[in-house]
Amino acid sequence: MFKVDIHTHILPENLNKVTGKFSDSRFLTIGHVDDTSAMLKKDGTEFRKVDCNCWNQKERIKDCDNTQVDMQVLSTLPALFSYWAKDDECFVLSQFLNDHIAQICREESHRFIGIGTIPMQNVDYAIKEMDRCISKLNLLGIEMGSNINGENLSNEKFQPIFEHAEKQGCSILVHPWEMMGQTNIQKYWLPWLVGMPAEISRAICSIIFGGVLERYPNLKIVLEHITTSYAVDSLQDSTKSLYKKTIQFSFKPRKTPELAGVIGLIDSGSLKSELETHYFHKHAHWYARDRSSDCRQI
What we know:
Shape: globular
Number of helices: 10
Number of strands: 16
Strand order of the largest sheet: 6-5-1-14-15-16
Radius of gyration: 18 Å
Order of helices and strands: EHEEEHEHEEHEEEHEHHEHEEHHEE
Distance between the termini: 17 Å
Structural class: alpha/beta
Largest sheet: 6 strands, mixed
């Protein structure tokens, strides 16, 4: 059985080449601790320690082999969305990140496919970079945050992005970021256990109740870090089927806070055609993988 992990983040080892040009200290920078780890910094303080598999695709392939994952869908770290930045700087950063992902996918096409990031705060730039991701970089879709500088995805200003994605057949992966109330939930893994599920539920409600799917019924959307409490459960049975055809939920509660990726299982004989039709919406069966257990179907 061919396994594809659609929830995997990566960043360029030379990130400072682009973020070092910007004066805003909120942009992430990377500093190597040793050969196997590095420290990400934000606002001049330590943000997160990452292992080399976060930037080294060779190490990542070893991890995939060890966990029987055949292919990964690469996307950028949500902390790099940088929607708060100046429009032109976020545009430049998005291009840099997308070029990096596309290069890895070209070099290791048998192990990686990619989706891009776009500067959501500027609709014109966002659509321009979406087009580049699909037509020039051969990426399969784009990743976006669950809110854009505090504004919900149902906001009228973002609708041209969804409209264009539908026309282009561009799949969308929505990932929580800038979680509501995050300053009050820093302990006990609460940003992941409470913040992310709440934030992605906010995105789901905005997309469904804001009428995004009625306006653009052919959108293909995946939502990450979801729990069993989501908007579809509150809908009538006759309405649920519409949204479940459009939205894929890719996370279920775990017994531990160890967060792992999501695996789609695809018949390997039809892999090429599935990828060409954005497999992770239409044709994948969704599985959650706990690091300490076997796959289980959602």
